[in-house]
Amino acid sequence: MSITTEAPPAQSRAKGPAPLRTGADFLASLDDGRCVMVDGERVKNVATHPAFAGAARSSAKLFDIAADPAMRDRMTYACPETGKPIWRAYQIPKTHADLKAKRLASETWSEVSHGLIGRTPDHVSNFFTGYAAVPEVFAQGGQQYADNVVNFYGRMRDNHQWMTYAIVPPQIDRSKPAHQQTDPTLYAGVVKETDAGIVVSGAQQLATAGVFSDWIYVSCIHPLRPGDENYAIGVAIPANAPGLKLYPRRPFALQAPDAFDNPLSSKYDESDCFLVLDNVFIPWEQVFIYRNLQVCFEQWWKTPSHAYGNLQAQARYVTKLRFMMGLAKRMNEATGNDANPAVQIQMGELAALAQTVETMLEAQEIRATIDDKGVIWPCRASLYAVMALQSENNPRMVDIIRELTGAAMISMPSSVKDLQSPETVGDVERYMGSGVMGAKERIALMRLAWDFIGSEFGNRHQQYEKFYGGASFLVKQNMYRCYDFKRATAMVDRELAGE
Ligand SMILES: Cc1cc2nc3c(=O)[nH]c(=O)nc-3n(C[C@H](O)[C@H](O)[C@H](O)COP(=O)(O)OP(=O)(O)OC[C@H]3O[C@@H](n4cnc5c(N)ncnc54)[C@H](O)[C@@H]3O)c2cc1C
């Protein structure tokens, strides 16, 4: 059994916030002994391994942007205790202007990858910001858990930490609850308690960007039943904890060595990690929920955590849709179809879907409400309305682009080498350009489009947009809980009463 966990460096709160981390600091921190398994082998250093180096460099830019004095106001706020700069993601918002400032910071980070890195460091940090805003939910399990969550939030905030999460049990047998699986240690759960902490074993899915994060939050958003108490936990685990193994799905960057041919897969494959925990020890101060079904459920819905985290997710999605619109427009221009009225109608439908998401993002802010402690909560009805339709609207948008491009993305040469070889360059340059751009420019554009919607990277993104916020039937249930049925039925009742 493992008995210690190494905290990531620079974790002291005593001296107040640490200096903002740079991209170089972030890249250096990845070489910390974390156990990432690819193709049956342990990765020596995530920052330099070909599967992850491109996305690591892209992620490093996020840290540099936040540390740039010119971006201070956009990306950070003054720590309430010391006045030093802290990432906006950790700001507990009190006003509509605070909420907007947080959204703009997320927008800036999302633009680094055109919205293609989903779990930037502002996603799960916003969940912890929501927990720290309403620690009473955690106090239902004992005051110490509320204290732990507030202290841990402060520790992450002051040290500019990146956390990701794995909050869904593995899909082993969904017909049975956690405690009735064939082996009680298949799902991540408590196997031992000591004076110093708890020991957790089992598996959990699916920590997107887990290979790059400082910490992984292991909890459960999946419905749990009485008898499942061992799995009703909320714990913070350092990515290099002894006993923790990360299994990323197939890294697309390994099949995408050339940035010209694979412009997105080579730079923005954030990875999604299946976790295996083998007797991982977690000190009590990193335990926020302990064998408590009610707190495990309420953490998502009775704190603003889910709303803050998904406000970031929607800001990121709006950026991605903007990029998608730009791509579609440039492709129509390249094929000479841009002025065709039929094409403009299809583009109008695409634009309507994209604009709806953007407007619903703003609605979350405009319709936000302030609770009795002065904390502002984004409007969850607006959030879940747009999220609930995402699993249907996103494939519709991708399909419109497929319609518009015909074979343009496919009738391209095999690789950049065809632009270099004397045997092929003549044909490529003569036949593969368009009326408005040369062959190299057109091939680059179509490669971008293919990587966006057609490549393995593009297809994983479609799965991501369907599932990152949970299966759509669950999001629709959230919407059901948030809709103002009282007002709606009152209208009907008044009419029936003849008023
Ligand atoms: C690319 C990607 C990235 C992800 N990133 C993260 C992450 O960072 N952290 C994390 O914790 N999780 C992440 N997830 C996991 C995600 O949270 C889960 O995939 C999601 O919650 C759905 O759970 P599941 O995959 O176990 O599907 P299941 O719950 O098994 O459901 C699969 C399908 O079965 C059907 N179904 C099952 N039960 C019902 C029901 N009661 N009513 C109606 N239909 C039903 C539905 O069609 C549903 O879509 C990610 C997933 C993907 C695909």
UniProtKB/TrEMBL annotation:
Keywords: FAD, Flavoprotein, Oxidoreductase. GO terms for molecular function: oxidoreductase activity, acting on the CH-CH group of donors. Residues 22-289 form the HpaB/PvcC/4-BUDH N-terminal domain. The keyword Kinase does not apply. FAD binds at residues 171-174, 208. The keyword Signal does not apply. It holds the Pfam family HpaB. This is 4-hydroxyphenylacetate 3-hydroxylase. The lineage of its organism: Bacteria, Pseudomonadati, Pseudomonadota, Alphaproteobacteria, Acetobacterales.
